Structure formats: C-alpha cells, structure tokens
Amino acid sequence: MAGALETAGRVLLVGGGNMGGAMLRGWLEAGLDPAAVAVLDPNGAPLLADIVSRGVRLAAAPAEVERGADTVILAVKPQVMEAVLPTLLPLLADDTLIVSVAAGRTVASIEAALGERPVVRAMPNTPALVNRGITGAYPNARVTGPMRARAQALLESSGPVEWVEREALIDAVTGVSGSGPAYVFLLAEALAEAGVAAGLDPALAMRLARHTVAGAGELMIRSGDEPAQLRRNVTSPNGTTQAALEILMADDGFGPLLRRAVLAARDRAEALSRA
C-alpha cells in the first residue's frame, strides 16, 4: 500500500468531516507523507486537529491552497457540492484527477461544474471510520490506467475497492453497501429487542446482539466459505437455529423483505442522481 501511495503525488482533500477524516487517517497510516496532503475545509476541520499537527496543511478557503494538486478528493456533503465545485476550478491542472465520494452526485454533474476531466465516482460506507469499509467506484473515460491505480490506492486505505463498468451500478452499490450498515444496525436493534421479549435484561440483550453481529461479520471475512455454507454450519437438523430460520426464510421472510429494501435504496439513489 505504501508503495502505491507514493505515486499519489499531491492530494487535496475537500471536506474534513467523518468520511474525509477516515480516508486521511488511512492514508497516513499506510505511509503517505503528510506534507503531500492539503485539507480544504471552511470550518477548520476540528475532527482533524491531531492530524494537522503532524504536518498536513489546512486551508479554510481555496485562495489558501496551492494550485495543481494531482488528485482532488471531494468529501463534502452532496447538498453543498454545487456551491463548492466552482471555487475549485482555479486550483486544478488539466490532468488533475477528481475522486468524488459524495452520494448522488453523477460524473456529469461534476463535469458540468469543472469541465471535461478525469473523474472517479466512488461510494464508500461508514465502516471506513474503523478501516473496515468497502467502496464501489466508477471511472469516466478520461481516467487513465495510472490514474485508476492512484484512485485505488487512495480509496482502499479504508477497505477493499470494487470497480463497476457502468455508472448506474453505483446506485445499486449504494443500496447494498452504502446503506447496508444501517440494515445491520437495525438487525442488532431488532435482535436485542427480541432478546428482551424472550426474558433477557435489556443491557445483556444488547451486548449479545452487538457481539453476535460483529463476530458473525468477522467470521464471514476470515472464512473461505460462502455465507450460505456458514449458515448451514450453524444449523443442526431440527435444532433451535432451524426453528428460527423457518420463520426468517419463509416466502414472506427476511430475503424478500431485504430485496425490497435494497431496491428502494437503489431507486432513491437514482432519483437523487437525477435531481
């Protein structure tokens, strides 16, 4: 990773909030030189105070940023992108790579503000905050092989990167992994509530739910088996798990419900992209 990041050149991170901060921490942990990074954040990026003290440059306005970064990472909230993008134009070289992690903002919308240039649209998820995220990414036609490798190195500092062939698939990625952590958190909530209904103390039920969800996730990552096989491994014939799965795997059970949820998230992402 450090070797790949050595080719990143000068990086401008626009937005020092949770996601931008998680990416920056990952870069530095992977060996990126703090002097190669500048953070542009009008609020002073209070979450990054400890990092800035290590040599990362912090700017409150575009006029304070040196022109010609090799890569610009757009990590601002989608609703402020329209106002932010025009202010970046004076900072860009012709071959500056733009990597956007703002949900619902298409490559076309970025090109409309910044002109025709290499753009990668990416969708990370919140486990990036603990270096356990996963990112879906789409490059436009102007992204060269070395540029894609640069984007890969920067994005994978917080977890794996999966590239898609069509930009529309980023909306599907949003429905699965972008919004997916919320589904898992809801599972933990519901599991704890079910434990209370079964007679457990609420605090104990929540501890059991948290660790069960987290432990099962870690097992899926470490195991070479597919989730379906791991499920079968836990399910003894006519046992307790089978009794529960007969409810969850019914025709109107967990699978169809989750498919409806993911498609609803995808459809909303598509609508936001068109807005």
Automatic annotation (TrEMBL):
GO biological process, one term: L-proline biosynthetic process
Domain of life, per lineage: Bacteria
Domain Pyrroline-5-carboxylate reductase dimerisation: 167-271
Residues that hold NADP(+) according to the record: A75, V76, K77, P78
Enzyme Commission identifier(s): 1.5.1.2
Cellular component annotations (GO), alphabetically ordered: cytoplasm
Associated pathway: Amino-acid biosynthesis; L-proline biosynthesis; L-proline from L-glutamate 5-semialdehyde: step 1/1
Tagged with keyword tRNA-binding: no
Enzyme class: oxidoreductase
Domain Pyrroline-5-carboxylate reductase catalytic N-terminal residues, every copy: 12-104
Entry GO MF terms: pyrroline-5-carboxylate reductase activity
Compartments, record wording: Cytoplasm
Ranges in a coiled coil: none
Pfam families (UniProt xref): F420_oxidored, P5CR_dimer
Keywords (A to Z) from UniProt: Amino-acid biosynthesis, Cytoplasm, NADP, Oxidoreductase, Proline biosynthesis
Catalytic activity, as annotated: L-proline + NAD(+) = (S)-1-pyrroline-5-carboxylate + NADH + 2 H(+); L-proline + NADP(+) = (S)-1-pyrroline-5-carboxylate + NADPH + 2 H(+)
HAMAP family tied to this protein: P5C_reductase (MF_01925)
Family assignment from sequence similarity: Belongs to the pyrroline-5-carboxylate reductase family.
Function statement: Catalyzes the reduction of 1-pyrroline-5-carboxylate (PCA) to L-proline.
UniProt name for this protein: Pyrroline-5-carboxylate reductase
Annotated source species: Aureimonas jatrophae
The organism's taxonomic lineage, starting at the top: Bacteria, Pseudomonadati, Pseudomonadota, Alphaproteobacteria, Hyphomicrobiales
